[in-house]
Amino acid sequence: MRYLALTLLVLVLLIAISPTTTTAWDVLDRFRGDTLYAVYDITYKVELKGTQGSGTAISTYSLHIIIEKLNRTHYLVSTLAGNVTYTFTSSDLVFLHVFAPIYLANLSKYFIDMLYIPPVEGVTLDVALRKEAVVSFLNSVTRWYKLVENTSGEVCQEIKIGNTVVEKSVKYRMVTPRAELIYDCPTGLLVSLNAEIEGGTPGMYATATILVELSRLNFLNLTSIKPQQSPGSTGLPFPTATLVAIAVTVAAAILAILFFSKIRRLLRH
User: CB 3.0-4.6 Å disulfide test: which of 6, 10, 85, 168 passes with 156?
Assistant: First the structure.
């Protein structure tokens, strides 16, 4: 709780000292509902190679972002880390016993500080903000990269990421750490991040890889993101309120047809 309170205090201070944009993030105005949500799947992998052995640690979690409209000027922004997993592999059992505690005690803390959202299931940050400060908060949550970028004036192009096509996107590259970020131009929303950090000590070499992928959101119609179904796939990576409404309507229509068919059969008898 002490760490959570301290984190929240730092976030509020970051918002207070950071310059706010002259206009609010227009997605808040264009979205007709009262609650926006987006989910990012985050994976970071650390590979260690040394004279005494080698090992790999992988951690994954989902970053849930919910923006609820309180009134015309203020929103409640919530961030939640969920579905947390840790896995370890090594070619040396003795090395693994040494590697795992180091990873949990030091490397995990490093990534927690860097990504800023504690990868602890159930830990939530809730902050009430003016509309103009929502972007500043989201970007401060993710520390060294941005979830929302100003893409106005950029030359946008089509980029394919896995089974997803971003028809109007912009790609940015960072030198330190070495990273590639892809944003959706209409909303400025981060779609994909791939970063790699290298380092080590005498006798030990480390490579850290970070992957951030947008997996779900309920304002797909405001973006240029076009999910493509892979062969045999039955799920939608980006469910929307519109699609859910259509599904409910179709289901209701089918039930109505079945109901009236049964009534007719009863009347005939």
Answer: 168
| Tokens matching residue 135 | 């972007």
Nearest one of 221, 225, 208, 222 to 161, comparing CA atoms? 225
Q: Where are the beta strands (DSSP E) in the chain?
A: 35-50, 53-69, 74-90, 124-130, 157-161, 164-174, 178-184, 190-201, 204-217, 225-227
Adjacent-strand bridge partners of 180:
173, 194
* First-to-last C-alpha distance (Å) of the chain: 68
CB atoms within 10 A of CB 35: 14
Dist CA 117 CA 111 (whole Å): 9
The more confident residue out of 233 and 183 is: 183
- Cα 170 to chain centroid distance, Å, stands at 18
Pair of tokens at residue 183:
């944003």
- Say if CB 48 and CB 90 are below 8 A apart: no
pTM of the model: 0.73
Contact 195, 232 (CB under 8 A): no
Burial class (CB in 10 A: 0-12, 13-18, 19+), 49: middle
For residues 148 and 188, the answer to whether their CB atoms sit within 8 Å is yes
Which among 46, 51, 176 has a CA at the least distance from the CA of 100?
46
The torsion angles phi and psi of 149, rounded to 5 degrees, stand at -125, 145
In tens, the pLDDT along 145-170 reads: 899 999 999 999 999 998 899 999 99
Write out pLDDT tens, residues 179-214.
999 999 999 999 999 998 887 777 777 788 889 999
